[in-house]
Amino acid sequence: MTSDLHNLSLHQPYQDPADVIIADGSTMPITHTGSISLPTQSRALHLNNVLYVPDIHKKLISVYRLCNANRVSVEFFPASFQVKDLSTGTPLLHGRTRDELYEWPINPSQVSAMFATPSSKATVSSWHSRLGHPASSILNTVISQFSLPVSKQFHKLLPCSDCFINKSHKIPFATSTITSSRTLEYLFSDVWSSPILSLDNFKYYVIFVDHYTRYTWLYPLKQKSHVKETFMAFKSFVENRFQTKIGTLYSDNGGEYVALRAYLATHGISHLTSPPHTPEHNRISERKHRHIVETGMTLLSTASVPKTYWPYAFAVAVYLINRLPTPILHLQSPYQKLFGVAPNYDKLRVFGCSCYPWMRPYNHHKLDDRSLRCVFLGYSNTQSAYYCLHILTGRIYTSRHVQFDESTFLFALPTLTEISTSDDIPPSTIGGHSPTTLPNSPSTPPANPCSDLHAAHSPPSSSVGTTQVSPLNSNSSSSPSTSERTAPQENGPQPTAQHPHPPNTQNSPSAHSHLNNPISPMAQIESSQTFSSSQSQTQSDASSSSSPTISPPPK
């Protein structure tokens, strides 16, 4: 318990009125809850659900919660105490008694580190960009409800030209009259066609929107005919994940959905369709399309990212939309409605900004640069990590240790030669690049909603261009905290389902295999890290011999 609200990170109002009863029988109200980090000699100890009690005179720590949440033990002595790591027995902290209480020692220099957030001086406009350019009313709700740190000098949202350019639209559709009482009772779906082919030849995406929670799943497609196998994999995933059945699927009369009728009838799923040439009747899907496309296009425009990267931006857009409050849910987010837990905005960063992943494991010698200047492309949903694109080589690095410069955008620079700050590639070789991308995957919900950062999407993949650095072969490995991947061209259908339970692989090596056969939707659910490749090993070897590569260290 604490009496200082500034001690808590991302605090929120206490849900139910409650009081703390003290020794003399009097009560003190609890108004907020939050999290706190306590520094030690080797690692920080974290406490969640810390109570904010304004009238309390002493800050108190529950030894039971401290030990169980951090796997530590506490030894008490008459004049001191000691905190040890439960696994190794290593001492982490020593404290003394004061006024007949055991006092947790904190140096003045550690206080700011305990309660600082990565965005302590962020402006309202910066949060507007981080959250994917939401409406001002939604932005103010998030800032107020989660007490996000905002600079006092720039506390008002300035006019956003990117929103004006990319969000101009007609009068909205009428409100839907369908009511639902549970998750997956009504599922709305539609296919969107892109006028621009992505780097991996994706031309479509299909969305599934749950009417009850408004949670959205997005799958990039190369052909409309892949909708059937994508839905079959999606059905198995969500019904197993949420232990409930899909009741009704609402779509248009497109051929991709007509092919689903027999399958839906076999599994007892009703199929409602909109009349021909009246997309307004499928208003939930149509409005969701507009929201995704507007947000994604705004992300691309803000960072000057080429439109061939639209699957990345749309995947991040869905990730953010699922975590933003909506008036339809009485200012709850779809994520909170689905999982009953508030989303975490602590690690959001501006899409397309400059980033610097930790590259030490890839160094050939000790004097190599420790990082590369990359472009931030999204969040991993299988690791607590970010995706970083190195433009010059077209390589994607998945790293937990990333530093960001949210004020600069590499794609907006006049020439790509300005990017070559830590590479061995001469400026004459820059140009005609076709960066590789990430494994294509949908916006799948996390198994543990509390680990919120990378749990709901992974950006789709793209192909390697003719001038591209050759991809790593199938026996390459990655570093404990930074992994590297390139995705060769793929053949056949690529339904993009992702494993619903992201493993904790922050500190363990990961390797990605390149297969010659397309992956079935069920296989991708079981193994989300697998790639498919139509390039021969001879071509890869030839390309790698003429282009610079970065070799990861052995496991």
TrEMBL record:
InterPro entries of this UniProt entry?
GAG-pre-integrase_dom, Integrase_cat-core, PolX-like_BBD, Retrotran_Ty1/copia-like, RNaseH-like_sf, RNaseH_sf, SH3_retrovirus
Q: Which Gene3D superfamilies match?
A: Ribonuclease H-like superfamily/Ribonuclease H
Q: Which domain of life is it from?
A: Eukaryota
What's any GO biological process attached to this entry?
Answer: proteolysis
- Keywords from the named record: Hydrolase, Protease
Q: Where is the composition biased (Polar residues)?
A: 459-469, 484-497, 504-519
Biased composition, Low complexity: where in the chain? 470-483, 527-549
Residue ranges occupied by any Integrase catalytic domain in the UniProt entry: 179-342
Region: Disordered; residue ranges are: 421-555
Molecular function via GO: nucleic acid binding; peptidase activity
* PANTHER family for the chain: INTEGRASE CATALYTIC DOMAIN-CONTAINING PROTEIN, TRANSPOSASE, PUTATIVE-RELATED
Q: What name goes with this protein?
A: Integrase catalytic domain-containing protein
Annotated organism of origin: Microthlaspi erraticum
